């Protein structure tokens, strides 16, 4: 059994977005926890309905975890907000690029650049 995912949701929005910090492994056994946390945010959105997911401490993610990011991004966008990924480890950066997720979900080198939006710090 691998390290479970730890999800920390910021108490108050930073830069207009709620920061969700992930640590551990996000996979078939743990993606439901993230989906539930994001669902709670989407049911009770902040005024801008913006979410930044901090990947700094996420060591592993499988296809189920990646699809959780895509689904939440689509739902945020449909309500006028966004979901962005931030600060991926080298493994996660490579994974996001290989599967082409950065073409669908904005990803940034740092949490600060994700909060700022725009093109500076955006990963391709």
UniProtKB/TrEMBL annotation:
Matching Gene3D superfamilies: STAS domain
Pfam families: STAS_2
InterPro entries documented for this protein: Anti-sigma_ant (IPR003658), MlaB-like_STAS (IPR058548), STAS_dom (IPR002645), STAS_dom_sf (IPR036513)
Domain of life: Bacteria
Span of domain STAS: 7-118
PANTHER family in alphabetical order: ANTI-SIGMA FACTOR ANTAGONIST TM_1081-RELATED (PTHR33495:SF2), ANTI-SIGMA FACTOR ANTAGONIST TM_1081-RELATED-RELATED (PTHR33495)
Family, per entry: Belongs to the anti-sigma-factor antagonist family.
Protein name: Anti-sigma factor antagonist
Organism expressing this protein natively: Asanoa iriomotensis
């Amino acid at each position: 059994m691998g390290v479970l995912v730890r999800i920390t949701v910021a108490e108050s929005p930073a830069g207009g977005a709620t920061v969700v910090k992930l640590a551990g492994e996000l996979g078939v056994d743990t993606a439901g926890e993230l989906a539930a946390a994001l669902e709670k945010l989407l049911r009770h959105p902040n005024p801008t309905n913006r979410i930044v997911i901090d990947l700094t401490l996420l060591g592993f993610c499988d296809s189920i975890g990646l699809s959780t990011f895509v689904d939440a991004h689509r739902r945020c966008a449909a309500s006028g907000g966004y979901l962005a990924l931030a600060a991926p480890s080298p493994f996660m950066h490579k994974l996001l690029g290989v599967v082409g997720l950065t073409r669908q979900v904005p990803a940034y080198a740092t949490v600060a650049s994700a909060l700022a939006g725009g093109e500076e710090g955006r990963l391709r």
